[in-house]
């Protein structure tokens, strides 16, 4: 295993470090202590050509203004909270509203736009970077002094990235975190992700309203472009006239409830390159976002950001769960340890 560190820039005169871990198969992951952002994941195609499979920026300044959350850990709460307001044990809390009148991905800074402490953990067959962050009581409006840890682990002999999350608060609070990496398995952004084939072991998705908030309705996927159980191209949803696809900008931005009976809940494939990504998670759902609104003034790897250039697979509890009792809860009690784990395995078809 090879690990390198380099200075990526400064935030408020504090250095930002970029870590790169490379295993004996050439698989390589780069991440930094600003937002726990993953900047690159290099993986081989069917011919052994090793290329980048995620979207990332070339400078810290671009990440500071990163409204797309490229590669970042988002929290305390991933997804939206209606009006940024919730009630815990009779206490009403108002968290920051940063998307219209709603709360999104932790607020103005959340976990994605702050500097984390970091340390490297080396073992014989694996290397990890452990990030830790103390979120004080009242930050972004959330209750509780929260100690968070995020660990990225790479292994020799397998092209796997394992992300583990843990947190503990001194007050009852909400915790729902995820990684917001945009994947593109074509390699170095050779193509968009419309022809990527996705399989999700899910029988239901959560319906959204015009503010992209959950309505609370759990919709069966049967006989629709939301049925990924046998695999389908992402383009199916982009070209669909289903009202839910049109609502989110022609594509997907929906939570899918995962079937816990299956080990490999999510599989993404690019048939042209031969690359395959398999996700296994402890989380009850995944938010599928197909980059419907990526088009803008940013560029990545010399390619201007465009819609459908990457796909997010955000393993998490359902958004706005505090307002829907039949969703899995994201309430964490005082002194209770929050834990979550997602494994990303890069292989070939």
End-to-end distance, in Å? Answer: 26 Å
Largest sheet geometry: 9 strands, antiparallel
CATH fold annotation: Beta-galactosidase, Chain A, domain 5
By DSSP, the count of extended strands is 30
Number of helices: 3
Radius of gyration: 19 Å
| Helix/strand class | mainly beta
CATH second-level architecture: Distorted Sandwich
- The shape is globular
Kindly provide the name of the CATH class: Mainly Beta
Portion of residues in helices? under 10%
Strand order of the largest sheet: 11-12-13-14-30-24-23-18-21
Oligomeric state, counting identical vs distinct chains: single chain
Strand content: 35-45%
Structure notes:
With 349 residues, the chain is mainly beta. The longest helix is centred in the first third of the chain and has 5 residues, at 60-64. It has one domain (2-348): Beta-galactosidase, Chain A, domain 5 (Distorted Sandwich). The protein has helices at 60-64, 235-238, 243-247; strands spanning 2-11, 14-22, 28-32, 38-44, 50-52, 73-74, 80-81, 85-88, 91-94, 103-104, 117-122, 126-135, 146-155, 160-169, 173-174, 178-179, 182-183, 197-200, 202-208, 214-220, 232-233, 253-258, 266-270, 275-281, 285-289, 299-300, 303-304, 311-316, 331-332, 337-348. It is globular. A hairpin with a 4-residue loop joins β23 and β24. The chain contains 3 helices and 30 strands. It starts with a strand and ends with a strand.
Short description:
With 349 residues, the chain is mostly beta strands. The chain has helices spanning 60-64, 235-238, 243-247, and strands at residues 2-11, 14-22, 28-32, 38-44, 50-52, 73-74, 80-81, 85-88, 91-94, 103-104, 117-122, 126-135, 146-155, 160-169, 173-174, 178-179, 182-183, 197-200, 202-208, 214-220, 232-233, 253-258, 266-270, 275-281, 285-289, 299-300, 303-304, 311-316, 331-332, 337-348. The longest helix has 5 residues, at 60-64.
């Amino acid at each position: 295993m090879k690990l390198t560190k380099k200075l990526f820039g400064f935030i408020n005169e504090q250095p930002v470090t970029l870590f790169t871990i490379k295993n004996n198969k050439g698989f390589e992951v780069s991440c930094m202590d600003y937002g726990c952002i993953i900047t690159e994941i290099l993986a081989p195609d069917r011919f052994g050509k090793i290329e980048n499979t995620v979207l990332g920026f070339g400078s810290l300044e671009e990440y500071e203004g990163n409204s797309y959350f490229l590669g970042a850990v988002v929290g305390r709460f991933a997804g939206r909270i209606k009006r940024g307001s919730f009630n815990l044990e009779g206490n009403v809390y108002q968290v920051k509203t940063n998307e219209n009148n709603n709360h999104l991905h932790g607020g103005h800074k959340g976990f994605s736009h702050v500097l984390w402490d970091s340390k490297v953990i080396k073992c014989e067959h694996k290397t990890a970077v452990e990030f830790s962050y103390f979120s004080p009581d009242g930050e972004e409006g959330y209750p509780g002094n929260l100690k968070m840890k995020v660990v990225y682990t790479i292994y020799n002999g397998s092209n796997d990235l394992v992300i583990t999350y843990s947190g503990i608060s001194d007050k009852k609070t909400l915790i729902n975190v995820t990684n917001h990496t945009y994947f593109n398995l074509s390699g170095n952004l050779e193509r968009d992700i419309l022809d990527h084939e996705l399989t999700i072991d899910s029988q239901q998705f959560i319906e959204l309203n015009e503010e992209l908030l959950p309505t609370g309705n759990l919709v069966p996927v049967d006989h629709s472009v939301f049925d990924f159980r046998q695999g389908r191209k992402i383009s199916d949803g982009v070209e669909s006239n289903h009202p839910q696809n049109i609502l989110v900008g022609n594509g997907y931005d929906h939570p899918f409830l995962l079937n816990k009976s299956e080990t490999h809940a999510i599989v993404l494939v690019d048939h042209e390159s031969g690359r395959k990504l398999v996700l296994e998670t402890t989380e009850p759902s995944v938010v599928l976002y197909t980059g419907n609104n990526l088009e803008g003034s940013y560029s990545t790897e010399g390619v201007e950001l465009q819609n459908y250039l990457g796909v997010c697979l955000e393993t998490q509890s359902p958004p706005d769960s505090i307002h829907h009792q039949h969703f899995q809860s994201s309430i964490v009690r005082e002194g209770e340890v929050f834990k979550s784990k997602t494994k990303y395995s890069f292989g070939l078809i």
